[in-house]
Amino acid sequence: MTTGTAITGWGVWHPETILGNDELVAAFNEFAHRDNAKHAAEIAAGTRQPIKDSGSEWIVKASGIKHRYVEDKTGLLDPDRMCPNIKDRPENQISIQAEYAVNAAKIALARAGRTGEDVDVVMLGASNLQRLYPSIAIEVQDAIGARGFGLDISLGCSAATGATIQAHQALQTGAARCALVVVPELTTGHMNWRERDSHFIFGDASVAFVVEPLDRAKPGSWEIISSRMMSKWSNNIRNNAGYLDRCDPDTQFNDDKLFHQNGRRVFKDVVPLAAKFITEHLAAHGLAPAQVGRYWLHQANQKLNELVAEYVLGRPATKQEAPIILDEYGNTASAGSLIAFSHHNVDLPTGSYGILSSFGAGYSLASLLLQRI
What we know:
The chain is of the alpha+beta class. The protein has a domain at 222-372: 3-Layer(aba) Sandwich (Peroxisomal Thiolase, Chain A, domain 1). Helices cover 31% and strands 21% of the residues. The chain is built from ten helices and 13 strands. The strands form three sheets. The protein has a nine-stranded mixed β-sheet, sandwiched between helices. Strands 2-3 form a two-stranded antiparallel sheet. It has a two-stranded antiparallel ribbon with strand order 9-10. Helix 7 (263-283) runs parallel beside helix 8.
């Protein structure tokens, strides 16, 4: 069984600015102290809870994150702002999210030995889009000189895997011959940097895949054996920002317009759900979990990844079996599993199997069973 398609190129790009835990914690704690002082009377009366200090060691223990790449940290380290400083661009310039996508696309296309002119479909997946229209995928299509069509896909942290699935299905139907998947995750703009339990989570990065028919794939490419998707409604990860925000001035700037989650509930729900999803995908091909050489899992939380892998394998996974890129990148939303693949696949021998899987808001789940050519 095969989809007749393959991932022939991949590329990762990120901004140069590094934001470490120590400097992030210093800024957050200064904000917390100021806010607690401002509301001292309410805190003393018991009508308001004080904001607790953050800590670098606590962040690593809670998430595995040591630092992250960010578009801007001047605003993030300003206790009066706690938001990245990213200027709007004129409409006659490429948008920043499209630029992120193009930067990764150039690397992926070069690896595949293709140019923008070879591409006839651009699938863009991201947890958040900076605008609704015109499609950012079409802007990327224009910027690289691609043919065909472009399409934006919104599916939370499964957007990148979902876009890859849509790409190989476009090839299967004959709608395209060379698909480019781009995942420009500028996540720091939708993060609530004033919220202690999640102020450290996100980082900015972009990743891209080239997907082509199997008969055009070179050695070292990855055949897409099959793909799976599922969704199950959940309110536990949410971002309510949208075009109707200004229609209710009472709630226009509420914190729920930014990323928020019930982290403990997500952990409890997603671990068994994702493990069952992956195990059933493998079983459909008669594969035992131990026959898979690598698991490129969604990079949201190190403990979550480790537990999903342990549930699947029946034992703790090694770092080689289930690599982690969280310590360097932080949570890059839907890009995480694709970045893990891009950094940790070339060492596997021909014939090796791998699972690339994401799980995120929705809940949404997606996986690709791959085999090295």
